[in-house]
Amino acid sequence: MAQIIYSQLLDLALASDAVSGDCRCNRVPLTAWQALPMTLELDRFEEVGTLVDDPYDEPTFAEYHPHGTRYDSPDAPIAPRYYPCNLSQVARCRDCGRHYLRYNEAGGYFTELRIRALQARLLVDAERH
Ligand SMILES: [Zn+2]
Fold first, then answer.
1. CA of 97 to the centre of ligand 1 (A)
2. What angle do CA 73, 87, 26 make, to 5 degrees?
3. 23 near 94, Cβ under 8 Å?
4. How far is the CA of 21 from the centre of ligand 1 (A)?
5. pLDDT tens across 2-43, in order?
């Protein structure tokens, strides 16, 4: 899958922000990370590319919250080099063209597909420390 660099991600986010109107994909607000809602069918999305930098590299689980947000805050930054964006794929809704990030959250005994809307105002090109 094609790797998406920051400038492309920003373009996809801006394209997404420009989409207005209702769609099946935004009936449930997806501004914060959450489990894929049951109402969303995976085949309504097409994969655009991945934010995974190097699949053979051990990914960081460090999150990026310089302003006191948390993992599931609606205003948490979207920083591609930080968890969980660094594990995410970018998907596009086939119906309306909005873009989403999604990844598999793997716990000890489960994996869960999680999704979040790609939002240009929250994107941060933060370097990993
Ligand atoms: Zn849609």
1. 6
2. 50
3. no
4. 9
5. 999 999 999 999 999 999 999 999 888 899 999 998 888 888
Give the distance (Å) from ligand 1 centre to CA of residue 23. 5
**Cis status of the peptide bond prior to 74, with omega within 30 of 0:** no
Q: What's the whole-model pTM score?
A: 0.94
What's the start-to-end Cα distance of the chain, in Å?
26
Q: Which residue has the tokens 């995976």?
A: 42
Exposed / middle / buried, residue 63 (Cβ in 10 Å: 0-12, 13-18, 19+):
middle
Neighbours of ion ligand 1 (CB under 5 A): 23, 25, 93, 95-96, 98
